[in-house]
């Protein structure tokens, strides 16, 4: 297993709360965010990067300020979050490297893409605590992963040279020749296999889909060893996500990186409406999420902090 350097560990501590658990608000989506703001494809394409950036700023200001970290993209969100004084001084910042969407191979596999001209050095220049890379993996199809594993190794090596924290995420997906039922049956094995691939590539912190059950979460924790993993929300409803988080945290996960489950029905092109909904809907959800994390999380020794009273 790959262990964090001192610099990476310091950054990891900063993306965690005082209890040592990750609690990251993800709003690095572009395409998914446009689809939430408008149902018509033409209306979606008319939503500018500037408009998305304003929404991400509001999520950062009104929601992420109450968590330990925010995850944003380098296209719409930075450097404005820093330059305009939007991100709180004690909120850590992760920047996503993956471009929105994917390319299709002739065989129907998803080929991941990177945002142009954003590497570890650029992430550091933008004032970030670290980066995040997401790739698509089908661990049961070796041919599906060659391109994406190359991207993954490239990013992991780049961040290691810069001695900067990189969170590694993967998503799996249904193939055209599968039914929904066939794919659903494979998901736990696909998530286990994808996790194994990421670890073999040198991942030091993982962001993973919910693997399907408490036992599957325990299997991931055993596989990951000392590598911490956070469960992602994948846009499920809040009540469902709370149950998934309870499963993951009770079986050894190290935290949560949550986005749409918190804010998907809060965002609007009307910024006053976004602010109101974030404060009235998303923040209470975040508080409930924090309570579940607090109930189940047991910090590993290297993340525990001793509270010292100065007299």
From TrEMBL:
Gene Ontology molecular-function annotations: 6-deoxy-6-sulfofructose-1-phosphate aldolase activity
InterPro entries noted in UniProt: Aldolase_TIM, DeoC/FbaB/LacD_aldolase, LacD_aldolase
One GO term (biological process): 6-sulfoquinovose(1-) catabolic process
SMART domains referenced in this protein's UniProt entry, alphabetically: DeoC
Similarity-based family: Belongs to the aldolase LacD family.
Keywords: Lyase
Keyword match DNA-binding: no
Name of the protein this chain belongs to: Tagatose-bisphosphate aldolase
